[in-house]
Structure formats: structure tokens, C-alpha cells
Amino acid sequence: MMSNLFSVFDPSTSIFSLSLNWLSSTLGLFLFPFSYWLIPSRYLVVFNSIGGTLHKEFKVLLGGSFKPGLTLLFVSLFLYVVFNNFLGLFPYIFTSTSHLSFTLSLSLPLWLALMFYGWLNNTQHMFAHLVPQGTPGVLMPFMVCIETVSNLIRPGTLAVRLCANMIAGHLLMTLMGNTGSGLSTIMVSFLILGQICLLILESAVSIIQGYVFAVLSTLYSSEV
Prior knowledge:
Elements: H1 2-6, H2 15-23, H3 28-31, H4 42-62, H5 70-87, H6 100-121, H7 123-129, H8 140-152, H9 154-178, H10 185-222
Helix pairs in contact: 4-5, 5-10, 6-7, 6-9, 9-10
Subcellular location: Membrane; Mitochondrion inner membrane
Keywords: ATP synthesis, CF(0), Hydrogen ion transport, Ion transport, Membrane, Mitochondrion, Transmembrane, Transmembrane helix, Transport
Organism: Cloeon dipterum
């Protein structure tokens, strides 16, 4: 039962289909033609409004470490994660963000780049960050260990948080879908209503998780 339940996250057994499944994460490049970004439309206005709002918020989060173009990286990261989360809600489309290998490939390179930049350019600041201000002298060695472990697990927590939330929602929808065959007509109607509500909830989770992923990445970058 458990193998059948989690098999919904398997890409495919075919090598050719496997590559096409992972290529689904780049479908956004093909769904929006080049003319979409040139011809004014209400969709472009909404897109620019979302991007402008996120730019202002990320600029505030970055504070003194703000640099031109840095917010564009995190806005693009947010849109990319949200697009892949939404893509997985459609039938027969591979959910790339439900795999730890995909989410870790987003968080780990970003974290490594921030760490290398911080330790090479702001070494004194990075050392000072290991001991919070006002820490008693007796607790300083312990705080260094705690802060070091906290920094090391950041890419893992980013990846696992996104992956676990996507898996949980898809598993719940799969369980509800598999229980409809032996129910009466009235119960099936309630089940469909419940699945619609769950789909709306998963849509909100897709946006929230993309936002959390981008905000935490922004906060991590502001520390270096």
C-alpha cells in the first residue's frame, strides 16, 4: 500500500520519459512567448505588480546589504518555485518540487555562494555573527557551536520544508482520490467537494511555500 501510495512521485521507469519529466520544470520558458513581455496586457500588468511588490519587500529585508539586481534573483526564485508548485497540481504532470534532489539543487548552490562570498569578503563580520551581541563569556563556546550548526543545516531545512509540504498535499489528494470507488453517490459528491477545497488549499500552499523559500533565502543573504 505504501509503495503504491508513494509511486505517484516516481518520474518514470523509462530513461527517455525520465528526462522529459525533469524537463517539465523548464516549461515556463516555452509557455510564455517573447511577445508576451513586449505587448502590454492585463497579465503583464499583474506580473509587474507582483514583481514590484516583492522587489520592495526584499529590498527592505536586505537592508544595508542591498545591491542593484540582487532582489531580481530572489523574485525570480520565488516565481520559479511557485510555477513548479502549481505545475504539479495539474493531472499527469510531474511535480519536481516534491523531490529532495530538486529542492536541494536550488538551496545548496545559493547557500554555498553566500557562504563563500561572506567568508571571503566579510570575514570579520562572519566571525562576529557566530556570537550574538550580549552573550555571556561562559556561553560563547556553546553559541559558536550552535550558530555553526544552524548555518550548516540551512540549505537542508530550506529543501526539506518545500519538499515535505508538496509531498503532504499530494499524498492527501491521492488518498482522497483512491477512496471514492466504494462510496455511495452522496458520499462521492462530498468527496469531490472536499477535493476541490483541498485543491484550493494546495494552491495557497504553493504560493506560501514559494514565498517562504524566497524570504528565507533573502534573510540568509542579508547576514553576509
